[in-house]
Design brief:
The chain is mainly α and 287 residues long. The protein is 75% helix and 0% strand. It has 2 domains: 212 residues, no CATH class; 59 residues. The protein is built from 9 helices and no strands.
């Protein structure tokens, strides 16, 4: 139980870290928009023309503060729009197949969840835990490194991949939190492994798998940005390994993992197509 709680805390730390990184990412994007020119640069120009003074220093400070407000406003607006589009996506006609297939598959898996988990050995779950944690943090680290690399080398493609990967994981994290608070499902090693819903509290619950939803959202964003077979095999393979080991470690039931994996993949694809630059990735032209 203590191990399960620690893993849940780790996932929550990743979620909130990603939310912070998403804020930085939006600042990077907002800084590049022509409709949001650098107020600091304008203030510097005024200082050069008029000469330094306390009043000019105050104006520069106010301009910088205004520019920061623009960053924050842009981030909040884009984040809210993304969340709204994610929650309304199931109501679009194009999502009908998912509206039918995912609930049907989920209900079928819930019916066999306890039998599938009950058939697994209780020994060796630590190795599976370690694999799933390495996969999650490797995925998050890759997104962060791509963003950093894009900034350092002024590589627009790497920067966009880092930004959209971070946004995908952050949006998936918010969806994960909402579902955790709503479903409150027991984990396989709790209460005789029945997997009852509306039994627990907080964010250390079973449905859906946080590792799966976060890793698949990152994999989906990266694989769409770089639609090369070896990259897709690597990213999706890592996500699949995380999903499988969340089940074999008895941290989640099969339905938890399938729902988390599917939602993560869909969120990553959704965010990519909403914000991608068609000049950077050929996948941006086709949905």
């Amino acid at each position: 139980m203590a191990r399960s709680m620690r893993k849940g805390i780790l996932v929550n730390v990743v979620v909130f870290a990603l939310l912070f990184c998403a804020g930085y990412s939006q600042s990077v994007i907002a800084a590049e928009f022509p409709e949001a020119p650098s107020s600091v640069a304008v203030a510097d120009q005024r200082t050069t023309e008029s000469g330094p003074s306390d009043r000019d220093g105050g104006n520069a400070s106010k301009a910088a503060e205004s520019h920061s407000d623009q960053f924050l406003g842009y981030w909040l607006k884009r984040g809210l729009h993304d969340q709204a589009s994610i929650y309304t996506a199931p109501f679009h006609e194009s999502a009908l197949k998912w509206d039918i297939a995912l609930p049907a598959i989920t209900l079928g898996l819930i019916a066999i969840d306890k039998h599938a988990s009950g058939a697994l050995s209780r020994s060796g779950t630590g190795v599976s835990n370690d694999i799933s944690n390495v996969g999650l943090f490797t995925s998050a680290g890759t997104v962060g490194l791509l963003l950093l690399d894009g900034e350092l080398r002024s590589d627009s493609h790497a920067r966009e991949t880092g930004i959209l990967g971070g946004e995908s994981m952050a949006n998936s994290g918010l969806l994960y939190i909402a579902l955790q608070l709503i479903t409150e499902r027991d984990r396989p090693l709790q209460d005789a492994g029945e997997g009852h819903f509306f039994q627990t509290s907080g964010l250390n619950n079973s449905f859906p798998s946080g590792h799966a939803i976060l890793t698949w959202s990152a994999a989906s964003a990266i694989a769409h940005e770089y639609p090369k077979p070896w990259i897709q095999w690597l990213t999706y393979g890592t996500a699949a390994a995380v999903s499988v080991t969340r089940f074999t470690s008895l941290q989640h039931f099969p339905s938890d993992v399938v729902v988390g994996s599917t939602l993560g993949s869909l969120v990553g694809r959704h965010v990519f197509h909403r914000h991608c630059d068609a000049s950077l990735s050929p996948a941006c032209k086709t949905k």
